[in-house]
Design goal:
Layout (H helix, E strand, L loop, with lengths): L2 H9 L2 H20 L9 H10 L4 E2 H8 L3 H13 L3 E5 L7 E5 L1 H25 L1 H17 L4
Length: about 150
């Protein structure tokens, strides 16, 4: 393959395209957060909260999913605990591990986040069409199911 062809493959790989889309989504989300009580949330805090996906997760699970050290997750979790959007609880299955649990205030943040995602997806639908957004969701869900994603 030629150098130009390799560059094109790398630039248009699914990973690159998904990363570009994720960057756009995060930019849109940051814009929507500007008028909220969580405007000062760091990208790490937003990503960790999003990684919970509405469920309790262990520090270890979050570390693996986010691809960062347990120490980095601990640091970010403690910031979220200070903001009262999550709480730490002992895991019943592993006493050495802590579970990150969404608090009542965190549930309010989830509501706001869901609203933001609906807005972002509407913006994406204006760009590529509602049918394509739903097809993309369907394909990604199917792939997540088959690859036993997080």
């Amino acid at each position: 393959m030629t150098k130009r062809k390799n560059e094109e493959v790398l630039r248009n790989s699914l990973k690159a395209l998904l990363r570009d889309s994720l960057d756009w989504i995060e930019s849109e989300q940051n814009e929507l957060l500007q008028d909220s009580p969580f405007a000062s949330a760091s990208n790490a805090e937003v990503r960790l909260f999003a990684a919970l996906r509405g469920q309790s997760r262990s520090i270890s699970e979050l570390s693996r999913y986010l691809g960062v050290s347990r120490q980095a997750v601990h640091h970010t979790v403690h910031k979220l605990v200070e903001k009262k959007v999550v709480e730490l609880q002992h895991s019943e299955s592993n006493k050495r591990d802590k579970l990150v649990v969404i608090s009542a205030k965190g549930r309010e943040v989830q509501s706001m986040t869901a609203k933001h995602f609906r807005t972002i997806e509407s913006r994406m639908a204006k760009n590529i069409g509602r049918e394509k957004v739903e097809l993309l969701r369907e394909l990604l869900l199917e792939n997540r199911t088959k690859t036993k994603g997080f």
